[in-house]
Amino acid sequence: MAEVKEEKTQKDQTRNRVLTLLNEELTNYSDKQMKVVLDLLADGNTVPFIARYRKEATGSLDEVEIREIEERYQYLTNLEKRKEEVLHSIEEQDKLTAELESEIKQATQLQRVEDLYLPYRQKRRTLATIAKEKGLEPFAEWLMTFPEEDLAKEAEKYIHPEEELETVEDVYSGVHEILAEYTSDNAEFRKWIRAKTMNSGKIEVTVKDEEADEKGVYQMYYEYARPVNKLASHQVLAINRGEKEKILTVKVIVDEQEIFDYLFDQTVPSLAISGAISLVQEANEDAYKRFIQPAIEREIRATLTEDAEDQAIDVFGDNLRNLLLQAPLKGQTILGFDPAYRTGCKLAAVDETGKLLGIKVIYPYKPASKSKREAAKGELIDFIEKHHIDTIAIGNGTASRESEQFVADLLKEIDRKVSYVIVNEAGASVYSASAEARREFPDLEVEERSAVSIARRLQDPLAELVKIDPQSIGVGQYQHDVSQKKLTERLDFVVET
C-alpha cells in the first residue's frame, strides 16, 4: 500500500513539474485552460470532441491549439521520465554530483540529457575500456595536467608485457584511446559542435549509381550542396529517398579545422608547455573524426528528416482537408470517366442522389482496333444523351490528358450543354476493390466501380472520400517516405475534425 502511495506521489510530482514547464513555454494559454485540456484528454476524450463540445470548459480552444498542448505535454513528460531514469542510473554508479544533477534537471531537451548521460552510459567494451583495465587511466589523467616532465620516462612505469604493454608506444596508444573517449563523451563539446554543424555545415550530395536512376529523377542532386539550415523539407525527403535507393551518397560537411581549434582551446591551457599537448591534440582530432562527427551527422540527418516529415505531414493533412471540404456539385447528373488505354475507358452515370444509372466501356485509344476507336465517340454521345448528363468527371490517372482532349472535342459537337472537370482519382481503385464497394455493387467489375467513385467524388467529395483509407487518397508526393504512424494519426485527425 505504501509503495502504491509513493508511486502516485512521484507521478503527481512529475506531472506538476511538467505543468510548470508547460506554463513557461506555452504562454498563450492560461494555467486553467491547459489543466482542463489535459484532464479531458486523460479521461479519453478526443481532440475533435473537446474542440467541438467542450468550448466553455477550454475557453474555445480549437483543434490546433489543443493538439499543441497535448504534443508538448507528451514531450515534456517523456523528458522528465528520461531525466529520472538517467539520474537513477548515475546515482547507482555513485557518480552523481550536485552540479551534474542540477544540469540534468535544468535540461529542456532530450538531446541535452543524453549528452550529459553519455560518460555514464553502459558501453560495450571499447578500446578505452581495455586501456583502463590495463591500468593506464592514471597516466592519462596525469597527462591532462600538461606536465613538463619527461613523458616517455613516466610512460615506462606502465610497461607490462603481460598486459600487452611492451613498449612506450603501446602505452601511448592505450592512453590515446582514453583521451579520445574523454573528448568524445564531453557534453559541452558535443553541444558546441552540433550547433556549429547545424549553423555552418552543409549537406553535400553526389551520385553513386547514375545507371540506377533510369528516368533521371535525382539528376539535380548528382552534384549538390546546400547549407544544412537552408534545406527545404521536400529536398530532405528527395535526398533521403535517393540515398535509400542507392542512387545518391549524402554527407554532412563542416570546417574541421575550426572544430579542431575549438577542442584545442578547450582542452589545452594557453600557457602550457608540455609534450602532452601533441598527444591531447591527436586524441581530440581522432575523437572528432571517429566518434563525434559520425554521431552528430546521424543526429542532424535525423533532425532534418523529422522536421521535414512533420512539415510534409502538415501539408498532407491540409491537402486532405481541402479534398474533403470541396464544395459538392448538387442537383446534377454526373458521368464518371475512368481513363485507360488497353482495357478501355469505363463510364458510370449517377443521378443527383448518387444512384447508379448505367455503365459503359468505350475504346477510344490504341491498341484498340480502328473500328472500336471510331465507334467510341458515338457511344459516348449516346451515353450522355441517354442519361441526361450535366457534367463529366474525368479521372486524372493514366490517359487523362488524351481523355480530356477527347471529351473537349466531343462536347463541341453536341447540342446539350455539358461541362467536364478533372477529378483526383487517387484511391478510387483501392475503394473499388474493397468489401464495401463489393457489397454495394456486387455485379460490377472493379474498374466500373472506380468510375462510379470518380463520379461521386465530384458530386459529394466528403461522403465519397471518407469510404477510403486516408493514406490511399494520394495527399502528397512523399507520403510513403514519412513516418506512417504519424501520417495515419494526422490524417485520421483531419477526417475526425
Counted beta strands = 8
Number of folding domains? 3
- Please compute the radius of gyration using only Cα atoms: 33 Å
CATH topology of the largest domain: Tex N-terminal region-like
Report on this model:
The structure is a single chain. The chain has three domains: 2-120, RuvA domain 2-like (Arc Repressor Mutant, subunit A, Orthogonal Bundle), CATH 1.10.10.650; 127-320, Tex N-terminal region-like; 334-459, YqgF/RNase H-like domain (Nucleotidyltransferase, domain 5), CATH 3.30.420.140. Helix content is 58%, strand content 9%. The protein is built from 22 helices and eight strands. It has helices spanning 2-25, 31-42, 47-53, 55-58, 63-92, 98-106, 110-117, 127-133, 137-143, 151-155, 168-184, 187-200, 233-244, 256-267, 276-324, 370-387, 400-411, 428-432, 435-440, 446-459, 461-465, 484-496, and strands at residues 202-207, 223-227, 248-253, 334-338, 345-350, 356-362, 391-395, 419-423. The strands form two sheets. It has a five-stranded mixed β-sheet with strand order 6-5-4-7-8, sandwiched between helices. Strands 2-1-3 form a three-stranded antiparallel β-sheet. Strand 5 and strand 6 (356-362) form a beta hairpin. Helix 5 (63-92) runs parallel beside helix 7, helix 7 packs across helix 12 (187-200) and helix 14 (256-267) packs across helix 15 (276-324). The protein is elongated.
